[in-house]
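Students often ask why we bother encoding 3D structure as a string. The short answer is that it lets us treat folding as translation between two languages. Here is a chain of 65 residues written in the first language.
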Amino acid sequence: MRTSYEWPVQLSTSWEPYDLTAGTLVVLPEGGPHAGTGVVNRMAAIRITVSHAVEQPEPRQATAE
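And here it is in the second language, the structure alphabet:
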């Protein structure tokens, strides 16, 4: 599942393994009873422990878009 977020100063893309979330209440990050609670809490709801996360910042010059 790929979810894109747009913030005034940041664009963010989050990837979650669909084979783990398919058919669960957390399949849609912004829908269902766990909407917006964050990936660690949502994964815990389906009994998956997140031990680490990888953040890959890609700073860029702002554009008019």
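Translate back mentally: The chain has a mean pLDDT of 85. Keep this in mind for the problem set.
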